[in-house]
Design brief:
The chain is mainly alpha-helical and 92 residues long. It is built from one helix and no strands. It is elongated.
């Protein structure tokens, strides 16, 4: 299937051509301004989100009394494990 568009008829009147150029530039300008506004809103929202997060973390540290947890034993492996019983076949 082939899409066929009708031929674009360009006006020969120079005033109509100039107005269509100005109109096209105005549309592009409006889209650019809209994009900058959206970018600014996202940036401001991100800054507010990070500020609230840092504020909550600092309050949590202050409420904890600043005591550090005991250091972990380096010989202990933490994670998930499965007990494999002897005598039963292991299916992987």
């Amino acid at each position: 299937m082939r899409l066929v568009f009708p031929p674009i008829r360009r006006s020969r009147n120079p005033l109509v051509r100039a107005l269509s150029l100005v109109l096209g530039l105005a549309v592009v300008g409006v889209l650019l301004v809209f994009g900058v506004v959206v970018l600014g809103v996202l940036f401001a929202g991100g800054l507010v989100f990070l500020a609230v997060r840092q504020w909550k973390l600092s309050r949590a540290r202050m409420a904890g009394g600043g005591a550090r947890p005991a250091p972990k034993d380096p010989d202990v492996l933490e994670g998930e494990f499965v007990v494999i019983r002897q005598g039963r076949p292991v299916h992987h």
